[in-house]
Amino acid sequence: MNMKKFASAAMTALLFGSVVIPVASAKDNPTEKEQQVPQIQIDPVHIFNTTYGTIEKVNSSENITYFTVKDGDQTNILEITKDTLVFDNTGKKVDIKEGDKIVAYTFANKPQKLIYPPQFNPDVVIVETKEAGFVEVDYFLENLTNTYDMLKLSIGENTELLNTKGEKVTAKDLTEKNLVVFYTASTKSIPAQTTPSKVIVLDDESENTVDAEIAKIIATDYYEVDGTKMVPLRLIAEKLGYTVESTGRGAIVSKGNLSYTITRGEKMFGYNKALRPLHAAPALLEGNKTYVPVEFVEEYLK
After folding, report:
1. For residue range 208-219, what is the model confidence (pLDDT) as tens digits?
2. Model-wide pTM > 0.70
3. What DSSP assignment string belongs to 152-163?
4. pLDDT band at 41 (very low <50, low <70, confident <90, very high)
5. pLDDT (tens digit per residue) in 169-188
6. Where do the structural domains in the chain lie, given as residue ranges?
7. Which of 101, 174, 191, 218 is the most exposed place for a label (fewest CB within 10 A)?
8. What is the dihedral of CA 108, 109, 112, 117, to 10 degrees?
9. Edge-to-edge strands of the sheet including 289-293?
10. Are 168 and 159 in contact (CB under 8 A)?
C-alpha cells in the first residue's frame, strides 16, 4: 500500500448546496391583501415545523440533551446541542429547564428520525417569560417586510444585529433572509412597523464558513492511499452536525434519519439499512483518527 500525507498550498474547494426556504407564520384567515402577496406559494406549515408546549422531562447525553415537550395530548422530543439557538422572548440567552413553556422552530427540510414520539432538532427555541417581549421567526424580503406583509423592520442605532455564531452583521445582511426578530412594540399599521431590539440571521454566511473549514481540513489533513484521498471522518462529520459514535472497529455517523456504519478495513459501509461501496476501505492512519475516502464526504455527508 502506497501511503503519503500531503499539505497542499491551494485549498480544495467543496461545493455544498444550500437552499434558502422562506419561513412564514401560520395564519388561519389571511386578509385579501395578505392573499395577494406573491411570495407565499404553499402553506408554511409544510416548510417550517413549530413545536409548542411545556418541558416535562430532560435527558442528557455527551453531546445532546433531549427535552420531552407536552402540549395537551401531543408529545414531542427536542434534540438540543451546543449549536442550538436558545433565547427567552426578550432576546436573552437562557438554558432550558423542566417546567419551561417553549416554542421551537425547525426547518422542515431537515432530516427527521422516523420514530414516535416525533423528534426534532430545532434551529431556534424560545422560552416564554413574564417579561414583555415578542418574537417573529420568518423570512424577510428586500424591504425588510415579512412574508405575509404583516411586519416591517426599521433597524435602529441600538438594534443588535448578529449571525448564528454571535458575530455582528449589518442591516444589509438582513434582506431576503430568515430572521429571528425580538421586539417589544409595533405600530397598528398594516404592515405593523417595529424597531427590534435584536435580530439574528439564521441563513447567513456562517454556512459558508463551515464549508471553508471543511475544505481546509481536506486540503491539509489527508493521506493518499493507492491513489485515493483519505480524510478524517470524525473531524469533518462533527463540523457538519453529525454525531459520531465509536464502535471499536469504526464508527456510526448519524444525523436525523440518516445513519452510516463505517468499518475499518471494509470497503462496504452501512447506509441506513442498505450497503454501499467505497473506492478504498476506511483506515486508522494517524493516532486514533479514522480516515475515509473523500468521496464519502462529498456524496453522503454534504
Report:
1. 566 778 888 999
2. no
3. EE---TT-EEEE
4. very low
5. 999 999 989 999 999 999 99
6. 32-201, 221-301
7. 101
8. 10
9. 3-6, 222-225, 228-232, 289-293, 283-286
10. no
Mean pLDDT of the chain: 83
With respect to CATH, is domain 32-201 assigned 3.40.50.2000?
Answer: no
Top-ranked range on mean pLDDT: pick from 29-33, 34-38, 272-276? 272-276
Sheet holding 198-201, edge to edge: 134-140, 177-183, 198-201, 160-163
Indicate the fold that domain 221-301 takes in CATH: Copper Amine Oxidase; Chain A, domain 1 (3.30.457)
Q: Is the CB of residue 295 less than 8 Å from the CB of residue 239?
A: no
Cα–Cα distance list, 233 to 75, 87, 111, 294, 297 (Å): 35, 32, 20, 9, 8
| Nearest Cα to Cα of residue 138 among 37, 18, 256, 241 | 37
Assess contact for 22 and 149: CB atoms under 8 A: no
Three cell numbers, residue 165: 455564531
* DSSP SS3 for 115: coil
Sign of CA dihedral 91, 69, 117, 78: positive
Secondary structure (3-state) at 128: coil
Which residue intervals of 151-293 are DSSP H helices?
206-220, 233-239
Enter the C-alpha cell of residue 258.
Answer: 440518516
Do the domains spanning 32-201 and 221-301 agree at the CATH topology level?
no
